[in-house]
Amino acid sequence: MSFKFKFQPILNLRKHHEDQCRTRFKEEQIKLWRIEEELATLQTVKKQREAETEQLSVGVISLEHLLSSSKYLAYLRRKQDETNARRVCQENEVEQARTVLVQARKETKVMEKLKEKRARAEAEERLREEQKTLDEIAITQIYRN
User: Per-residue pLDDT tens for 81-110?
Assistant: First the structure.
């Protein structure tokens, strides 16, 4: 006789929910990593442009080039600020996804422990019944002899 856990459909739903939460958490983390890569790229471009501007400001200075570089550096700073703001929002999304995942994992574990406890109790009951049957057979054998 095999063990039948009457709450198995609920456990299955909780496992499915946990898997969905795990997937969402990974997606949110990937978004955050992409934003951080974008920030690193912006920082690299900004440093390169600053170095170029510094080199070109020695000797004969082209007003057009300085103006263009200045505008581009201002654009890069704005873009960095916007990307930093997006990163903060995305960090919050990642944290929310992590919290939901942790809660879903707890709920799944509760059901899994309940299932294990019920399986253990049923196995112990079967052992008691088997022992009782064996005891009865032994007593019957003693009285027959």
Answer: 999 999 999 999 999 999 999 999 999 999
What tokens were used for 61? 């200075």
pTM listed for this prediction? 0.75
The pLDDT tens digits for 27-61 are: 999 999 999 999 999 999 999 988 887 777 676 67
CA atoms of 129 and 4, how far apart (whole Å): 18
The C-alpha atoms of residue 124 and residue 119 are separated, in whole angstroms, by 9
Residue 31 domain-assigned (yes or no): yes
Q: Is-contact 94 30, C-beta < 8 A?
A: no
Q: How many domains does the chain have?
A: 1
Residue 4 has which token pair? 């039948």
DSSP string, 8-68: HHHHHHHHHHHHHHHHHHHHHHHHHHHHHHHHHHHHHHHHHHHHHHHHHTSSSPPHHHHHH
For the chain, what's the residue count? 145
**Residues 103, 95: Cα–Cα separation, whole Å:** 12
Q: Is residue 121 in a domain? A: no
